[in-house]
Amino acid sequence: MANKTTAEKLATIQKGYALEGATIELGAALIDGELHKDAPVRLPLAMMNRHGLVAGATGTGKTVTLHMMAEQLSTAGVPVFLADIKGDLSGLATAAAGSEKLLARTQSIGQDWHGKTFPVEFLALGGDGNGIPVRATVTSFGPILLSRIMELNDTQESSLQLVFYFADKNGLELIDLKDLRAVIQFLTSDEGKDELEQLGGLSKATAGVILRELVTLEAQGLEKFFGEPEFDTAELLRTAPDGRGVVTCLELPTLQNKPMLFSTFLMWLLADLFEDLPEAGDLDKPKLVFFLDEAHLLFNGASKAFLDAITSTVRLIRSKGVGIFFVTQTPKDVPADVLGQLANRVQHALRAFTPEDAKALKATVSTFPLSDYDLEETLTSAGIGEAVITVMNDKGAPTPVALTRLRAPESVMGPSDEALVRSTVAGSALLGKYGTAVDNPSAYEKLTGKTAAPTGPAAPAGTPGGVSQQNDVDAEARRIEEEILGRPSSRPSDTSSGRDEAAERAGSVPAPRAPREPEPQPGGGIMGDLGGVLGGALGGGLKSMARSVGTQLGRELLRGMFGTSSRRRRR
């Protein structure tokens, strides 16, 4: 290696990146301190479903790199998903203005630069931001991902899976958090003790922990992320009328307060895609490229079940035409089983200020193929907008390692004007579909006999969205303290029951339905028995519903490896 001339090193890179078919142009190689625009570094479009890693220290240009890659993917007709952590990626909707310095840089690497805009869709988790609200139902989200957000241990996660199993079997739709609370309350009540015994694994103490965590989520305002209309992940696969791929930017401006929610929601999107997309085999270009920013948040403190599910998803989703790029600071942020599946590597500069940094640097170098570079020196001296790259070539082999000066984006490297973002959202076809939350009858209403209140802008004046959510939170906190945790509650009691009674007298809340005789069930047996048990537990007015629920024992929901279950699979 040390005896090679510059010309020999140049020839190695030129040969290694002489690729057939469509490519993503990444930049030009730097060899022995000199830039060679006749040595372009590129990534085959057909190999982007082999996944990748964009890594580097803070401020070295990772966001700009994925911005530049997203532009070219869109131009090639490939839809892109971006987790927009800082809001900088909204600049894709605004054409950049060239400057003398910018044009000098782009010309030096052989880039024919022109300012452009790209088709962008702005999303926001639960409407926490300017974008179109993205929600998931609790049943779709599943017990494994929900346990991750609630930071439950393995035993508590297993117990939560039993609760989902019970709800799935018995037609109790878990749409939002109050539905899940209602099911747990039923199972831990005197009326539900028979069902709890049949489940054989949910103790009252564990139920108390789960309920307490649910109350915490609601008190933090996270209930707005769960509900309907549920976001259809097929929306991520759209192309614009001119054939370019739509770039979907998901923002969460309060990430610092909800890092676990953000990373777990991204995994839900991937899991839903995985379960619904058909096998595609090897394609000329991927159906979607998914950039997962702040990837370390996904793995920190993750349970074995969660890590196993991530590993399996990454391994298998490739055959469905989806490429995943993890974006983080160092490769050690990603578990070895996942890292081994990331064939395309863009490594920005690393800093070695501490002994821990030095260990991370050596570990990073060890993950690259042998090369003509002293990678420890190269990675600590690379400038902003430069990266060490190796990718999978069109024959499935790694390309030579190349220090690369990267191309510049053609849209604004920073946020778009907020007025432009708002107008883009207002003109989106998705706004009418997902813009207004709805509260359909589900487990909460079935178990309590209450009627779901309308939510969103169409709700009548004075009707709180979510059926007095704060009163629910307070009431549940009292119940946890008094009934499950066995201590008196210090919280004041709410007056919602008095208001409900007054509303009922005024006719705004329907009175309970009159009891009617249970209908005989064909076949009887265990299905009819469960219907009878539930009927007695829920009260006369709901007996027929409960018996009909009992007939669903044989229709278990199909859940994915994360325990997820999309609406399409529930039909």
From TrEMBL:
Region described as Disordered: 448-544, 552-571
Domain of life: Bacteria
Helicase HerA-like C-terminal domain span: 36-492
Low complexity: compositionally biased ranges: 449-462
Compositionally biased residues, Basic and acidic residues: 475-485
InterPro entries: HerA_C, P-loop_NTPase, T4SS_component
Amino acid composition bias (Gly residues), ranges on this chain: 522-542
Official protein name in the record: Helicase HerA-like C-terminal domain-containing protein
